[in-house]
Amino acid sequence: MNNILIKINNLKEKLKQWEYEYYVLDNPSVSDYEFDITLRELIELENKYPEFITSDSPSQRVGGQVSEKFKKEKHIFPMLSLSNSFNKNDLLKFDQDIEKIVLSSNNEYFVEPKIDGLSISLIYKDGVLIKGITRGDGVTGEDVTVNVKTIKTIPLIIDYKKDLEVRGEIFLDKESFSKMNNESDKKFANARNAAAGTLRNLDSKVVAKRNLKAIIYNIPNPLEHNLQSQNQVINFLKKHKFKTSNESKLCSNINEVFEKIEWFNKNRELIPYDIDGIVIKYDNILKYEEIGYTSKFPKWATAYKFPAEVVESKLLSIDVTVGRTGRINYIANIEPVNLNNTMVSKATLHNYDYIKEKDIMINDYVSLFKAGEIIPKIIGVNHKKRDNNVIKFNEPSNCPMCNYTLVKNKDEVDLYCVNEECKGRIIEGVVHFVSRQAMNIDGLSEGIIRKFFDEKIINSIWDIYEIKNKKELIFSKNVYKKDIEQGIKKQKNFKDKSFDNLVESIEKSKKNSLERLIFALGIKHVGEVASKSLSKKYKSLDNLRKASLDDLMSLNDLGEKMAMSIFKFFNDEKSYLIFENIKKYGINTNYIQSNDYSDIHIKEKYKNKTFLVTGSFSTYSRNQIKDILLELYNSKCVGTITKNVDYVIAGKNATQHKIDKAIQMNIPIIEEEFWKKENQG
Ligand code: IVH
């Protein structure tokens, strides 16, 4: 081999080993100085002989590539999230639910810190890191490979040649975060935001300087790599030089899990990065299919959340705002205070009765905490600290946006603005319409929407679809001025690009499946889940519109209140305007099945039946089979055997007692091969 190449390879190997010792093991064997001069030597050689630069070279960690925008990328396996547990009882129930399914009281759990960062999926082909994708909405993320390659704890090349996907968390440790905040002008509220901002930075050189780290904790298809427990997964990851958490532990039962939680409670401050809970995973992966999944998370794992932190701060003023339904909200402005590692300056106050009941006045000291991830809530007031400067806050009588007289419905505490033309309500309606769960239009932040309203660029939801014809007007009003001034995107043609992307996203939204449109319309009481089941059931907006009240009432997952609200919405005399606009702008009004089940041949005998599906399957997952039964056969799936069950579909490792019972009760059992022959043959 060429001498230069040998030299380069030697330098690379040395540097890789040192990087591993320093970043992954936290145990450096050489000084920073020695590392730096060796890296420089490699870079100099590579500059002279660029033909020898490989993508796994430590020199490639320094970044350099500037991205215009991150490409969207669909995940091979959806990235699920975790159910939450808040106390011992929740965890005992979690343990008992699993016990009932696996029929063993000998349950081992793998306990890990819940790192407060950003999840990432890394894909290796032939042992080479080829992709890093953010979580996004769980189905589609963003390709941030160039930035991920600069993260030193992520190996660029591994000693495992089979295609591999691993998942973990990218974060900034406490020390790097405080260093970064001290050194830069731009202050981030917490390490998570700083890590998020860094990972999505378009300049990978900036990313390389920030000392992001990644801890890996998951392989989405472990059985394909012959890994049968979470413990084995972690050992496999360690063996291939990924950084894993030092604080994880295999516990032999739920009581040991409680002890480990106690340990975390006591030692949280000593952990070098922020954690927002503890993840408890059933260790035996062979049981995962059987334990099952909901649409959002696995039932074999849960996240125990630390009790919410409560802090006190001064209430400076109260803003009155109007929501899309006309409901009046009260937002407290408070003296900035640190809560769960984030500086907060706003909190919600439920309604006026609450303010009166708790006797809350402006300039009082109030206590607040974070419920979920939304803005904090005010839960009380410290009357002992009250002085003469307090000012009473009076209930408003007019809408803050349109000045209409506010009304209170009988038996309700909330005040409403009933003016359908109220600008505040319309703006909030647009914010909801474009949101990620609704029409999913990128590029219309609340700020931009307000600006568009102020400049009369849009006056209603439907004007969104006219934006493409208003380029000149938009640019003449300097809507994007602030973004450009802040230098968020420094490209010269930022304006054009933003506009083009926005229009592209708006046009794309016209092809959404019906459930998004139903949810986006903001029908009172109709949330995301109900929108989905209405869309699946009625298949088109026209069918839904024609549904009788009786028909809507008969849907058992809707409830009376919701059925009435839907009926009222579609039978209101003004609703024709909605349909006219939907038609005018060519917005899709049909249900689009998201899964491709085109290989399924429908068998009449399985239509409108009740099924029980147990075990794991090779072509489709158990959940997909259930989906097929529901969508294509209009059949129901249940979890326990009763005389109402028409068929049992049994895969590998089917639950024995269910099979025994089915035989006893003479219920036909269809095995996977037979199911495949009949339905996919
Ligand atoms: S496991 C299917 N383990 O928490 C299970 N998640 O609320 C996938 N997270 O999106 C997640 N530390 O970003 C897992 N040790 C850990 C974690 C962890 C942090 C994050 C992850 C996930 C979110 C779920």
Average residue pLDDT: 88
Distance between the terminal alpha carbons, to the nearest Å? 55 Å
Structural class: alpha+beta
Instruction: Specify Rg, calculated over alpha carbons.
Output: 28 Å
| Portion of residues within helices | 25-40%
Characterize the biggest β-sheet.
5 strands, mixed
How would you explain this protein's 3D organization?
It is built from 25 helices and 22 strands. It is an alpha+beta fold. The strands form 6 sheets. Strands 2-11-10-3-9 form a 5-stranded mixed β-sheet, covered by helices on one side. α1 packs antiparallel against α2 (32-48) and α12 (423-434) packs across α13 (446-454). The longest helix is centred in the first third of the chain and has 22 residues, at 3-24. The radius of gyration is 28 Å and the shape is globular. 2-(butylsulfanyl)adenosine binds next to β3, β8 and β11.
Distinctive features:
5-stranded mixed beta sheet, globular, 22 strands, binds 2-(butylsulfanyl)adenosine, alpha+beta, 681 residues, 5-stranded antiparallel beta sheet, 25 helices, 36% helix
